[in-house]
Each structure stands twice: as structure tokens, then as C-alpha cells.
Amino acid sequence: MTAGITSRADAAALVRRSLQGFATYDEITGLDEHQPLRSTLELDSIDFLTFVERLAAGSGRRIDEDDYPRLATIESCTEFLITPG
């Protein structure tokens, strides 16, 4: 696991925190872990890049453009963050 991420719950919480500002609190907390983030929250490319930067900063993990397909849902983001890079 990466620095600051000690559990699946920590990773999922970081993902939801990183989405703040793109939707309301209720929309973010109500998201199913398997819903596609970009289409569900209507994230454009700049919004998605901001989200990725927040994930990277919050986890202390480098996230490259090649990793973006692994960041499609809350579940896949969580898995990405807890998997050793």
C-alpha cells in the first residue's frame, strides 16, 4: 500500500474526497462503487486531471497517463491505490 493509505476504506475515502467540488456531497456519497465516474459526474478532461492530481497528492503515489483507464470507478480507483505500484 502507498503512504497514508492503510486500508481499502482509506483508499475509498480518498477517492470520494478527491471528487469533492465536482458534485454535491450527497451525489458523491450516493455513488455506487461500480458507476463510471467520468460519465456519471460529467467530468471533462480538465476535471478528470484535477481528480487524478488530488488522488496522487493524497496518496503520495505517482499516477501516469497510462494508469488513467484503471481510475474508472470508485472500486477500480480503490484497487489501484491499494495495489503496490
UniProtKB/TrEMBL annotation:
InterPro entries listed in its UniProt record: ACP-like_sf
Q: Which protein, by its recorded name, is this? A: Acyl carrier protein
Query: What's the source species for this entry?
Result: Nocardia speluncae
